[in-house]
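Teaching soon. Got one?

===
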Amino acid sequence: MQHAKCFIPLESDPSIFTSLLHDLGGAPTLEFIDIWSLDDPDQLAVIPQPVVAFVLVLPTSKDYEKLKAEQRDRQSDDVDGLDSINVLWFKQTIHNACGLYGLLHAICNTQLQEAIKPESLLDNLLKSANRNLAEGTQFLENSKQLEETYTAAANQGSSSVPNAEDEVDFHYVCFVRGKDGQFLYELDGDLKGPVRRGPLATREADSLFEAGLNAVREYIQQENGGDPQFSLMALVDTEI
């Protein structure tokens, strides 16, 4: 795939994601946290509810590439109808910026009041994307301020920073609740559009929690029965 430009990858550290979110214009009460277990009731019980979004970090193995190719083959080339109304999806046109796209898919689909500061980078991105998805793509590609903000965050990681042009062996996908509250969506900028994963049990905000965890469990099981390289973050509001 041809990309418009290249960024250095973003480390899957919730403190880095939270710092970047705030610098882009996310509300100070929003933060990313690690999810350490998918099954331990005690650990799951301490996660603030409702979860705004899940961001999954997964290895780009042969099984993953096969799954993504199958998903792309099933998708239309155009994003329209219910899904285009229900969620905001960005096509990834910046190489190695899947962490940024995961963050954007999480925050741009929140239904929390005052989640994004007026006239911030996020607010201006949303205004562009709501006019036309192509305008949102151009904003991401052309905003010097966004690139500088992202690069500062990406350089905060504890691991060595690869070249922006390098191929990395992990990828980020996001799981959110659609605006009408009926469906779980998987948002991956490498696909042709949003993937409707299925109906939610209720239209309440906390219905994302178990549905999102089940979707993550499915991903892990597809990887030859499980892979320790997977990691999961949740976007939460600390004041709810």
